[in-house]
Amino acid sequence: MTKATQRKLLWEAAAVGFGLLIALIPAPQGLEQNAMWTMGLLIWAIINWVTNAIPDFVCVFIMCCTWVLLGIVPFGTAFGSFSGTTVWLLIAAMGIGAAVTKSGLLARVALCIMRICPPTFKGQVLALLGSGVVIGPFIPSTIAKVSIVGAMATDIGGKLGFQNRSRGMSGLWSAMYAGYTLLSQAVLSASFFSYIIMGLLPAEVQAQFSWMFWLRAMLPWLIICTVASYIAICILYKPQDAPTLSREDVTAMLDKLGPMSRDETITLGVLVVCIIFWVLERTLNIPAAVTAVLGMSALLALGVITPKDYNQRINWSIIAFMGGAINLATAITTVGIDSWLGSTFGGTMAGLISNPYLFVFVIATTALLSRFVIVDMTTDYTLFTVILTPFCLAAGVSPWVAAMAAYCVVYPYFTKYQNINYLAAFNSAGGDERLEHKMLVPFCLVFHIVSILALTASVPYWKLLGLIP
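The structure assignment produced for this chain is given below.
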């Protein structure tokens, strides 16, 4: 038995022990014993999610099945989210994203934007940052995006004359990562994590947040963070020389792709139609999930993505985890834990929530610091959303506010182990050969400080939208 296996077994024993300890404690006034078993299972799952003793999606399967076996909730409730709109929206969005990646449309659009911007360091920083914001809504997989554009960023850096592991190379990579990952929370369809956030929120809150309203609510944060990112990169990574890249070099890279293929043309058409219908979701009264599923179906029917792509390019483990996470919120509500938390600790939280500026700042800062311990980003924002929702509802604050305060800081890369998206972007760009991790950390720090301040600065705007009383 290897040491890694022994370590996992020890963590699993601890998870089971702590879970049973909570489950067997006599229920306090206002709760039944089923609620204690639900919290015990949650503690068991959290320890597994933090230590990865058991894969996260396997944990939610076990948790959902145990709810049924213990009679906490019926099977239809325990697995109800898998037939809901959020899961199908995510499946379809991943399918559409697979078509964009496979067809080569992502690389083409990115290069077109790079050709428009000046062939200088600042110009290409703007191109990489801006292309991420523009392309982001079309592909929910941030890993897919950075895996493709990451290599392009360092290739552009090489043609600009930057040495490997230099400030200039680090600046271009940072611009790419900011545009394609760090700013993705601003648009619902730019990251599948946003769909998970949506699914964790109460039904009445979900009904409020169409694709367009989500973007509208995030505009202050997006504008502040985008402008600050550009300025910070230009200052932090300003190269000693000022090499230029000819437009012909970018055009040559674009020419290598050849004319738009049939698959690219079809994919672009489907994407444009989907975005239009998502923007007009409330006006046309067509659910976003229906639009997405029909879009994916069109791509499958026309052969842009094949049944094999459908099986292999969609991250089914993420979908399984998301379904279980949504069911967790349902189970907590069913056994009354949310009401009990609100009545028991509502007074304590009321003081914090009554000052929304302080509330948003504290939640965002705490969520960022927690990422040093909770390695899985999905687990991190899931816990914050589920735990804070009853307090927000009791105070008349939209739980979306608390969810976004945690969600907008889940991508730190102060250390490599914190972020699988970072590892994908780092390695696709050439890894240690072309980049130096410690040179990328300063921008990570600046961005997350700005992100927390931008969230706090959004409070007056959210009050105007009715999200905060």
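Interim note for the steering committee: The CA atoms of residues 407 and 452 lie 11 Å apart. The chain has a mean pLDDT of 86.
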